[in-house]
Amino acid sequence: MSARDRTPMFESKSAAMRAVQVGFLGLLLGLWFIATSVTQVHRLLLPDPPQVWHEMQRLVVTGELWRAARVTLLTVGQAYGIAVASGLLIGFCVSRSRHAVRLLEPVLSGFFAIPLTLFFPLFILFFGIGTASKLAYGALYALLPVALASIAAFARIDPLLIRAAAAMGARPAALLHRVYLPAALPGVLSGMRIALVICIAAVLGGETLVSTAGVGYAIKVAEELMEVARMYAWLIFVVLASFALNMLLSMAERWSVEP
Amino acid sequence: MSPAPTDRERAGVVRIEQYRDRTGGTTSGSDAIAISAQHVTQRFEGSDRQHSVLALDDLSLEIREGEFLCLLGPSGCGKSTLLNIIGGMTKPTAGEVRIGGRALIGPAPREVAFVFQESTLFPWYTVIENFAVASEFQGRKSGWEERARGALRAVGMEGFAGHYPNQLSIGMRQRINLARALFLDTPILLMDEPFAALDEQTRMVLGEDLSVLLARTGKTIVFVTHSLAEAVFLADRVVVMTARPGRIKAVSAIDEPHPRSPDFMLTPRFSEMRNALFALLRDEIRHTVAEMREARDERAGSNPDV
Amino acid sequence: MSAALASRFGIRVQRMVLLLALFLLWEITARLFGDPGMIAAPSQVLGALGPRIFGDPRVLSAIGLTLFELTVAFICSVVFGVVIGLAIGSSSISRRGLMPIVLLLYAIPQAILLPLFVLTLGIGPLCKIAFGFSHGVFPVILSTVAGLRGASPLLLSGARSMGAGRLQIVRHLLFPHMVSVLFAGLRLAMTLTLLGVLLAELFVSTTGIGYFSQVFAQTFDPAPLFALIATLAAMAVALNETVRTIERRFTRWK
Q1: Contact partners of C by the rule of 3+ C-beta pairs under 8 A?
Q2: A175-226: per-residue pLDDT in tens?
Q3: Taking all residues of chain A, what is their mean pLDDT, rounded to a whole number?
Q4: What percent of chain A has pLDDT over 70?
Q5: Domain with C79 in it: what CATH number?
Q6: Do residues C2 and C60 share a domain?
Q7: More exposed terminus of chain A, fewer Cβ within 10 Å: N or C?
């Protein structure tokens, strides 16, 4: 529009931005050190940074980190696999009939408004305390975004494309492979990304509430035993892992937009 | 209880409704200069490659009081930029603009009213509330409601004062934008392709209405457009601009009194003038297309994946 | 017009019929095949609703406490979320510097922080309110920051051309736009706050609905458990609808 709407990019602005972020991080760490050394904050609430660092090393060296992480990751992997497979299937089937879409999609979105956490006691009732309940919980929670995204993605494929391909002689298998899947892929992928984040959060939640193994369980145990330094150590690992995952997902999203 | 409208304000309302016959050829209205742009140059700094763009190159233009002037040119020739500069929305890199003899240093809400390509009505206010806010911005609060209803009546939208903009069609919204510009009661009206987003028929009808309004109010109007037919139909003078960097290529006068009827479009004179303008524009359009192709090839060359 | 109405009426009726059919299926399966320690038929659930839930003052007060915690957490989320959002979004530098931090914090699976909250704040309502707040505050911050940014530059030009001063632009352009974006984020904030409060309640299984759900589950008494969950679900839907109604009232102009 007008020249005033076009602001030049100042190189110094991104440097200032980094400065703010680094400053914030430094401030947090600084406060932590000060709080533990100067003030009388109860050791039970805020452990010494060196102690936490020591625990972090211990978790790695003794293999405890890997053992618990493996359980969690395995559960997440299974739950996610089930969620994606069934979500895609449900989404595709529902999308076939416009009537079904109109009937069911609001119901599924409505479910999203009620946190499935509400039904968690039912999972304990059915599956007991252990891997099965958090697996089912994670799978069901992650299924919703995949199903919703699939319904939207498959239902919105331009029918003209399908008719054109069929007119050129494409058989159902080829149609599925060459038209449906590529056209629906972006929408489905974005649903899958949301589902992954939800699945991890759900499984960790399940582990924290009940369960006998995994990262969430380890954190809960540390709290019950009042081993605060260990709990903080676990938390730092999980936070770092979530940052890494977040970065991977953003990169995947950017990659999917410009292949 | 608002005080009685002043004589000037009442005159403003009355002026819209009163028919004022206008004759005269190229020097429509008075010889006084409404807007004077001298040696205006506009350069935009590059975003990432230190590439600055020269949008306007040493352009000088005098717009007479009461005339309807069209800025015509290919895409990117700087006509919108020029409009923003003479309206005080953008400060030129070099050169000076004077309105009514005084140098322009920023927006001039009492001298200049804008109509943009898309609606600038606030969607969260009703139509009449938008007028209230506009008068608050301008600083002219008393008697606004009467003036507002008068302006809406002039464009035939008085029944929609209580509606929200999103309840109206695009054509209706642009009429209201026009009404609001009239409501501001400024001597100068700047319009940046106001009918571009509308369908052909609505464009023609609104163009006709604009011609009638022009005859009645005697405002100075500067109108940016792509459309040759629109330019010939509406303007007293058409300024043809070159491709970027924008300079004035030619100024054509259209000798036909306002209000103009659609029959004017059927006359051989209309076609002649239209063809003449097209001849002037054709080279500039070719030039612009070639430049765009060059720029695209340059980008493709630097990015092997494209 | 009437054909469209008929089909819309038809869809709603069809959905009702579908739901009723599912309920019927549930009833039959539960009665015939269901393990009575694990599944309760809808009729049994309805039967338990009276005496075991609404008739039991302890359960009722647990539900009431949860509702209270939820309300306080939501209000805090909105108030603090808007304040923080305004602070972050007010300048380009603070926004571009701090927003990535906010987004990374948002991405942390908050369930793992639950033990820490309980350790620090005890097992009373405070930790549940705080945990709910920590969930709900993020969408409010994000909506506020987005609202501050997204005001149309075209509207800004229009306002400036009419002589609007900075304060007038904030009042008539930036603020209404921000409010409209904010409301869109409020429903998500409500859902997430509910999630947080529920998680915390379930974790602390010594009082509140966490206690009762555990008791019902461990004594294999499904009817009151189903009834409790159904009541909470109805509460969740009602709260969601309330926020939606408020949102619609404030964005009538859309």
Answers
A1: A, B
A2: 777 788 888 888 898 899 989 999 999 999 999 988 788 899 999 888 888 8
A3: 83
A4: 91
A5: 1.10.3720.10
A6: no
A7: C
Contact in structure between B249 and B241 (CB atoms under 8 Å): yes
Q: Which residues contact A166 (CB under 8 A, 6 or more apart)?
A: A175
Domain assignment present for residue B81? The answer is yes
Closest CA to B145 of B303, B2, B16: B2
Instruction: Please give the tally of structural domains in chain C.
Output: 2
Residues of chain C contacting A220 with CB distance shorter than 8 Å: 115
For residue B93, what are the contacts with CB-CB under 8 A and spacing of at least 6?
B41, B42, B43
Average pLDDT in chain B: 82
Asked whether the beta carbons of B259 and B215 are under 8 A apart, the reply is: yes
CA–CA separation, B117 and C50 (whole Å):
63
> What chains are in contact with A, requiring at least 3 Cβ pairs below 8 Å?
B, C
Asked whether residue A63 carries a pLDDT value surpassing 60, the answer given is yes
Q: Which is nearest to A199 in space by CA: A68, A64, A72? A: A72
Q: How far apart are CA C174 and CA C149, in angstroms?
A: 9
What's the CATH code, domain A57-257?
1.10.3720.10
Q: Where are the domains of chain A?
A: 10-40, 57-257
Of A1, C162, A91, C135, the C-alpha closest to B134 is C162
Is C226 found in the same domain as C132?
yes
Question: Would you say residue B47 lies in a domain?
Answer: yes
Please give the ipTM for the structure prediction.
0.83
Chain C residue numbers with beta carbons less than 8 Å from the beta carbon of B89 are 157, 160-161
Q: Which domain holds residue C4?
A: 1-33
Buried b (16+ CB within 10 A) or exposed e, A85-100: ebbbebbbebbeeeee
In-domain check, residue B87: yes
User: What per-residue confidence (pLDDT) applies to B306?
Assistant: 46
Separation of CA C124 from chain center: 21
Closest Cβ opposite residue C198 in set A107, A118, A126? A118
pLDDT digit string, tens, across residues A189-198: 889 998 999 9
Q: What is the CATH number of the domain that holds B63?
A: 3.40.50.300
Cα atoms in the 13 Å half-sphere on the side-chain side of A155: 20
Q: Rounded to an integer, what distance in angstroms lies between the CA atom of residue B57 and that of residue C229?
A: 73
Mark whether C14 and C48 lie in a shared domain: no
> Which band of pLDDT confidence, cut at 50, 70 and 90, is reported for residue C3?
low
C32-69 b/e (C-beta count within 10 Å ≥ 16 → b): eebeeeebbbbebbeebbeebbeeeeebeebbebbeeb
Contact A2 B89 (CB under 8 A): yes
Q: What are phi and psi of A42, to 5 degrees?
A: -55, 130
